[in-house]
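SAMPLE LOG
Freezer: B-3
Tube label: C17
Construct: single chain, 122 aa
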Amino acid sequence: DVQLVESGGGSVQAGGTLRLSCVVSNYRISSSCMGWFRQAPGKEREGVAATTRQGSTGYADSVKGRFTISTDNAKKTLYLQMNSLKPEDTAIYYCAAGAWTYELTVSAYPYWGQGTQVTVSS
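STRUCTURE (predicted):
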């Protein structure tokens, strides 16, 4: 079975940084688009960043210029570098795999991790 395991979440103050990691098993991360999503309490899950098979990246407007998505194919790991964090970034962050085109929509991804909590205090 395909497994995605996130780590790196935590509690930081506004302006701080975190780097999330997502280790992928039984799946070649270069074979499809990969993405990061987040879900805040009482809100729907939303796309944050995605990367294509060719290495192109895209971001939600709310994180553009602050977050960076990247992959390490040798380590089978997807990363999300988060800088200049804001309280509104507080959410559970999920990595996802398997979209065939660049997408920031939940329904495009068949494989999901269990999530990691990010809390940003003001």
